[in-house]
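Input sequence (119 aa), recorded before submission:
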Amino acid sequence: QVQLVESGGGLVQPGGSLRLSCAASGSAFSINAMGWYRQAPGKQRELVATITNGGSTNYADSAKGRFTISRDNAKNTMYLQMSSLKPEDTAVYYCNADIKRLSLVYNYWGQGTQVTVSS
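Predicted structure, token format:
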């Protein structure tokens, strides 16, 4: 079995920064594309950013210029560096990954980490 575990969330003031991490653990797997999603109270889950195993990235308009997605393939870990945070960035942030095991690709979600932007 493979697990995705997020960390790095918390309370930050408007204009501040946070760095989220997502670590994949398990055995006999490889990771294809990964991404960050978020869900604010009363709203649908939405894409924040994605990154391929080759490092190509894609961002939601709300994240462009403020967030940076990256990954360390040797550590099976993905990051989201968030800066110039706004109250509307408040949400539970989820890690998502397409993981290949035994020649099949499965989609996994992490448990989420809360990000609260408030003064």
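Checked by second reader. The two ends are 40 Å apart (CA to CA).
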